TrEMBL record:
Transmembrane feature ranges: 49-71, 78-96, 102-123, 135-157, 163-181, 288-314, 326-345, 352-375, 400-424, 436-457, 469-488
Subcellular location: Membrane
Protein's name according to its UniProt entry: Major facilitator superfamily (MFS) profile domain-containing protein
Organism of origin: Anopheles christyi
Stretches assigned to the Major facilitator superfamily (MFS) profile domain: 3-491
Keywords: Glycoprotein, Membrane, Transmembrane, Transmembrane helix
Length: 510
């Protein structure tokens, strides 16, 4: 639990960064070229705003790809090393004197954020005992939502520089805390460091716990995984497997070190070969289509727009309500819904939750767009009659309607398509291709998020704010038909059922 809380500072820092854009963009758009101390506040236009918000997601796209390669050097080591540039990116943001600097720091911050979030989740899954693994994994997700809520809350009182300074402290705290926790036993066994793995497992389980049986189980699982990896490498690269010990899966004699180095050197080629084999395997095409399809509907239904532009959207929508207060309410509701989602997924099932989620998301998005349209039309008509102040007061009394639509959308999204999309990535892919399948789905998700955030400003220019959310409502309706016709129900199905060749090894990973 202590180790999981330590690495949860990574998702917390990621959530702080995710929530930063909304109040910071609003603050940047309000400020003109005003001198304050030795720093110049600069204004930004709509296109520059879209790049500030979306470049972090583009950086996360590349970070997600690089994170899988970086993990071969150790989960703890990667978390320690990446926390420093993560913090530096926010320090540079604090001292930024041009929008180009913010472009750069947004990309670097997103790159580091994706690596830290991915490695933190893997770390927790590898150290946790089966009875609390779900709980400790949920802590990582809750930490991210809590970080976003903190950014919304502090953003109401701090300017964008002060907020960046506070966010820079979270990766530094991660760096300090990770120093005092051990490397994961699974990684140490994979590297052949059995004594260190024993000490790590003893630290994690307690000084009086007998860890020999669990350590033997990990060795068996790692041995099987290594043999499968080497068999695939020998098939795709021509490396002979005759040099391996059939009992242990280790290279014989002096070739052990050389083969290990060779595996590290060709890791990128092995990943490329895995991707190609996945795309050629008809049995795996459907899981790819299902998971990537869900990522499209997850990202292009307005959630990313609310996360990155919440204060800006509410400022244009509300006549009397404080937009920062509304953003804080949305962040708080999102945090509560994320806590509830873990209970409902295993109780209600995946498909019913996805269907209900899609229906309520569609209704909420259509309702929000209609409220925006009604408000804009009323202002135009009454402004022509010279009673704009009266309509502002009248419209302010109805601010609770669009806020309620956003809250309903947030709950539906957090209970349904948001967690289930990621859950199905682990449930639909066979163990042999689970790593590469997760990489494909994660990278595609970040790509869709980048497009969604970047194009929000363009949609708003062409369709208006109301038309943009009507478009999101239509996409959500299409997602409903996709769920009904394509997505399978996996409630109550063990992983062994989906991947019967790895029955014994899968029980270790659960």
């Amino acid at each position: 639990i202590i180790a999981a809380l330590a690495v949860s500072l990574g998702p917390l820092a990621a959530g702080l960064g995710k929530g930063y854009s909304s109040p910071a963009i609003d603050n940047l758009q309000e400020l003109q070229n005003v001198k304050r101390g030795n720093y110049t506040h600069f204004s930004v236009n709509d296109q520059q705003v879209s790049w500030i918000a979306s470049l972090s997601l583009l950086g996360a796209l590349f970070g997600g790809m690089f994170g899988g390669l970086a993990m071969q050097y150790g989960r703890k080591r990667v978390l320690t090393l990446m926390s420093l540039p993560f913090s530096i990116s926010w320090i540079l943001t604090m001292f930024a004197k041009s929008v180009e600097t913010m472009f750069f720091t947004a990309f670097v911050g997103g790159f580091c954020c994706a690596i830290v979030s991915t490695v933190a989740q893997v770390y927790v899954s590898e150290i946790a005992s089966p009875d609390i693994r779900g709980f400790l994994s949920a802590i990582q997700k809750i930490s991210g939502h809590f970080g976003m809520l903190i950014s919304y809350l502090l953003g109401a009182y701090l300017d964008w520089r002060q907020l960046a300074m506070l966010i820079a402290m979270a990766p530094i705290m991660l760096f300090i805390s990770v120093i005092y926790i051990p490397e994961t036993p699974s990684f140490l066994v994979l590297r052949g460091c059995d004594e260190e793995a024993h000490r790590s497992l003893q630290w994690l389980r307690g000084p009086h716990k007998n860890v020999e049986l669990e350590l033997d189980t990990i060795r068996t699982n790692v041995r099987t995984t290594r043999m499968n990896l080497l068999n695939r490498i020998s098939t795709t690269t021509g490396l002979p497997t005759a040099t391996l010990d059939g009992a242990t899966g280790q290279p014989l004699g002096d070739q052990r070190r050389g083969l290990r180095h060779y595996i590290e050197m060709i890791s990128f080629e092995a990943i490329v070969a895995n991707v190609k084999s996945v795309l050629r395997n008809a049995r795996l095409v459907k899981p790819i289509l299902i998971t990537c399809g869900l990522m499209i509907f997850q990202r292009f239904t307005g959630a990313s727009s609310f996360n990155f532009y919440a204060v800006t959207i509410f400022r244009k929508t509300f006549a009397g309500m404080n937009p920062h207060g509304a953003a804080i309410a949305v962040g708080f509701v999102q945090l509560l819904a994320s806590m509830l989602s873990g209970l409902l997924i295993d109780t209600v099932g995946r498909i019913p939750l996805l269907i209900v989620s899609s229906i309520f998301m569609s209704l909420a998005l259509a309702g929000f767009g209609s409220c925006v349209y009604y408000g804009e039309t009323s202002k135009m008509l009454l402004a022509e009659g010279g009673v704009l102040s009266d309509v502002s007061m009248a419209a302010g009394q109805n601010d609770w309607i669009p806020l309620m639509c956003v809250l309903v959308f947030t709950v539906a999204f957090a209970l349904g398509i948001s967690p289930i999309s990621w859950l199905l990535v682990g449930e639909l892919f066979p163990l042999e291709y689970r790593a590469v399948g997760s990489s494909i789905a994660t990278s595609f998700s970040y790509f869709c998020a980048f497009l969604s955030v970047k194009t929000f400003v363009d949609f708003q220019s062409f369709l208006g704010l109301h038309g943009t959310f009507w478009l999101y409502a239509c996409i959500s309706c299409v997602g409903l038909f996709f769920v009904i016709m394509v997505v399978p129900e996996t409630k109550g199905r063990d992983l062994e059922e989906m991947d019967p060749r790895y029955v014994r090894t899968l029980t270790i990973n659960r």
